[in-house]
Amino acid sequence: MPLWLALLLMPLSSLLSVKLSLPDGPIYLLFLPITLTVALLMVFDWAALPGIALALLWRYIALFSPGHALLTCTVFICGLSICWLGYRIWAGRHWGAEPGILQLGVMRLFWIGFFLPTLLVFLMQITVTLNAVPASSSIFNRNPLTLRTLINYQAILLSCVAIMPFYYMLIRCFRHPGYFSRQFGLLRQQIADSVSAAEIKIWLIWLFLLVTLLMVLHSRLENQLVGDFALLLLLPTMLWSAVRFGFLFTALVWALVLIAFYQFRVQPDISLHLAVVSTNLLVWTLIIYFIAVSGVRQRQLIQKSRQAALIDPIIDLPNLRALKNMLAQQASSTLCFLRIPDIDRLSRTWGLDLRIEYKRRLAAHLQPLLQPNETVYHLPGFDLALRLNKSTHEERIQQIGARLDGYSLRWKGLPLQPDIGISYCHVVPPVNHLPGLLGELSEMAEVSLHSHQPESLQQDNTGLQRQIKEKLALLNEVQQALDNERFIMMAQRIEGLRGDDYHDLLLRLIDARGEQVLPERFLPVVQEFGLTWEIDRWVLNHALGFIDRSRARLPAARFAVNIHAVNLCRPFFLSELERLLKQHQVEPWQLILVISEASGAVESLAGQRTVNRLRQMGCRIAIEHFGVGYASYLQLNTLQADMLKIDGSFVHNMLSSPLNYQIVESICRVARLKRMQIVAESVESQAVATALRALGIDYLQGDAISEPQPLTMLADS
């Protein structure tokens, strides 16, 4: 194929090459045979060289004597081979990559666009200067320092740089007909997304009119000056194409424009005029191609950034934005919600790597059941979502549930199989309130954790909807209370057997009707919607402010404040607490921070570091609800605290339950070994108080000791 392509296209290239006659000899404005030889090498590599040599020899025999033709052909092939060898060594296996690739652009421009024309002009000039080829038959003078040599040199440069992409694509299409459709698809991809068909039509019409005008003006000598001024309009026109339509479209059109424009060029009165025009076109080519390649590269980077924004970089799964886009593209879908709350507790023990790996492997575990275009999506926290095609039948949901039931993750030698709640619903676009829909699915998945079967959002769930509305109403009450100071604090005295009493501060919410809302109702909502730090900061600020204001009447008062354990892991918790202590001039020993043992956050390394730092500051740490959490006794090996609060479920009926009595007694023994003080909660009778004192309990708390009262009344009493 390279042989007959060279023989077929060489006469055509010679015919399209633009040649003019000046007083001192002929010149070329475009020299397309060199473009053809480079394009053949870029497609066929060294296999194209025999065909190139034969085609060149056939061309030069018609121009020179056989000896001169053979010499010229030999010089041409030698220069071409040297440049191609250098380019091949540098480019390696990427030698045949199509034009427009930014990484190859600079060196390809050097070897093919600059070094090859320069070397060929140098070699051809030597043959003429040494009289090896007669000057009358050549386009070069014996004196190389002439304007004619410059114009010919620029013509070869322009042909190698501007026309080569067109020739390369033409020959590739001859070799592989399917290449045309692939390049057409690539051409469409390179066009900016905002380009409309009307814009392309307007640009093509304008370019056609402009090129037609230029050809008419340059076909007559007296109009060439006006034509050269009109030629300046080509640059902004092609820059428009480079910015909007991409490199491939621009390179093809620019090559055709140059070939068509030069065909009607007549000889000017002054040779310098041609040199200036040729220089302008060469510089414009470099500018246009550079901007076109940069524009395509920029759009590709933007597209990659948009694609990357749809994938979570840590979990490596599509995210919520990708789910929203996919739901909008499909006619109908089934949306499944997977809720895995135990992962939160496990990740606090084993680290964030567990959560990441669990989600990845769970998604891979579900992959065999998924059809094309169905995907597992990552949601914030410990949830996942599945988008299934169309309205999936109940049997398929049951299959997914059965596969999830059999899934377990082996982590550091231990099998982990947390419960997974499944809910689902059928959706059709547009899905305008996806976060709200996911919230409802999350509630249904919570129900699934207890029913142990997938729950449908479309089924009759009036009770659940009522619970959601009540929860949202309660969330609004909490937010309004924070904004309008509708929280109040109650103080309950805790009796110390050595006379070192202190007060426990209890938070109450006053709703819009003026009624008190107990913590058991609103604190779960606070935790679910991430308002724990806002609540804790409010309590700390008001508690320390009360100590500051009541310094005269209560000079040595101590107060216990409940802190959500999750806030111990906040990066700025310690600095914020230190700021509040300094602001209200309160000593750290006056503050007892009560943390729930059941939360599990105190097990984490970050939580333990914060607890140790708080104790070093002088604050005392009390662990609340001890005995009801997971592995309570085991935690005492690593837990550093000053006080243990025995959960009231063991205390209030300890006299009637021997088991509870033994639990309380064993907690006391273990706490003494750790040199921790003990607080008994829910002391409801004097008989229980007497029994606890006999066990050596340090502090008693309950209605039998003191009932809660508003904090403001404490300073007045």
Automatic annotation (TrEMBL):
What Pfam families does the database record attribute to this sequence? EAL (PF00563), MASE1 (PF05231)
Q: Which UniProt keywords apply?
A: Cell membrane, Membrane, Transmembrane, Transmembrane helix
One GO CC annotation: plasma membrane
**Record domain EAL: where:** 471-717
One of the record's GO molecular function terms? cyclic-guanylate-specific phosphodiesterase activity
Q: Where in the cell is it found?
A: Cell membrane
Keyword Transmembrane on entry: yes
The way this protein sits in the membrane is described as: Multi-pass membrane protein
Q: What is its main location?
A: membrane
InterPro entries to which the protein is assigned, alphabetical: Cyclic-di-GMP_PDE-like (IPR050706), EAL_dom (IPR001633), EAL_sf (IPR035919), GGDEF_dom (IPR000160), MASE1 (IPR007895)
Transmembrane feature ranges: 27-57, 69-90, 110-130, 150-171, 200-217, 229-262, 274-296
Protein name per Swiss-Prot or TrEMBL = Sensor domain-containing phosphodiesterase
| Species for this entry | Mixta tenebrionis
